[in-house]
Amino acid sequence: MIWITLFFGITSLNSYSQKLNVIKLDSLLQALSEKQLFMGSISISKDGNLIYSKSIGRADIAGNENSSYKTKYRIGSTTKVFTAALVFKSIENNKLALDQSIDKFFPTIENSEKITIEMLLKHRSGITEFLKSEEFANGYTEAKSEKEMIAIISRLKSDFNPNSKADYSNSNYYLLTIILEKIYKKSYPELLDEQIIKPLQLKNTYFGGKINLRNNECYSYYFTDKWEKDTEGDTSVPLGAGGIVSNPNDLIVIIEKLFNGEIINLKSLKIITQIQDKYGMGIFELPFYDKKGFVHRGSIDSFGSIISYFPDEKLAIAITSNGAIYDKKKVLIAALSNYFNKPYKIIFQPFRPSSEDLEKYLGAYTSLSYPRTIAITRNNTNILANFSDESGSVK
């Protein structure tokens, strides 16, 4: 598979790259490409200077189109970094407050009078993940209106009492998106464009719609015995919880500007990076040996993304993928280990369970917290999950 490396003169001319073993990192990504374990892009910057950028795999397998530094990907939950920033910009402009409750916006949601903006940001609301709803049991390829989504979330029972603990839920950031739209009387794409994209002069970032290859977007793929094109989720469902399109070059700009106080002020930055029960506000802590960084990961369809930043080193790494057997987190660890000169081991062979191991997991599964029966079956070496409808028939 063809791969493309973009050096921008960095290999021998840029002193920032001296800590990065470019040849070793190139070899890793080339091997991942040749073994069909990963398709995507990575960019690394130091002190605001791009020191590495590489893309492997295909943007469109059927059209035999290679990925490049221009390729744009759906970034899934990494969108939450943008949404948290927009919320804090509204707080700085006295349009919202962290301690205000959400009941005036969503009176039909359980415990809304007890849930605050801060709890939504930190996933401490107790509001159930909307993707657990029956409406999304087979994915979300159909558009949903705000009215439909709020009705779905309102029907779900809370998972726990507000602020008693933290548990990740896309519902929190969907609701934050609607709050932003209500207080500004503008759509999320408009707010994103006006408050982040245009001021930072980003050329490859926007709220996504139907995938358009002519706009340098790519399809996503899952692997059976070959790469298979995945379906497209409708971005009206996740909105500010997961609907943005971008690429690593833009993502490293975003995270650098965020930590430089150029999107929100440094007082707000200090607040969002305070970690409680492993959660910040739109960001998570990323310890690496004696280094302290911050990170957010995302997945949507078969796309994946990671955005990370180490403030003391002013090091940013962003990864996007449109097909992966090899975990994107392992690619990040490999890049960090390379830069910080730490030992790391790469295992290219994916886990292949024995036939006897697979047999242990076959059968029908039910749960009091999930209304449908899940039938686990096998197809050669693959495990398949089939969800029943209300009549009990399996799809």
Automatic annotation (TrEMBL):
InterPro entries: AmpC-like, Beta-lactam-related, Beta-lactam/transpept-like
Residue ranges annotated for the Beta-lactamase-related domain, each copy included: 27-325
Protein name stated in the entry: CubicO group peptidase, beta-lactamase class C family
Source organism (scientific name): Pedobacter hartonius
Lineage, broadest ranks: Bacteria, Pseudomonadati, Bacteroidota, Sphingobacteriia, Sphingobacteriales
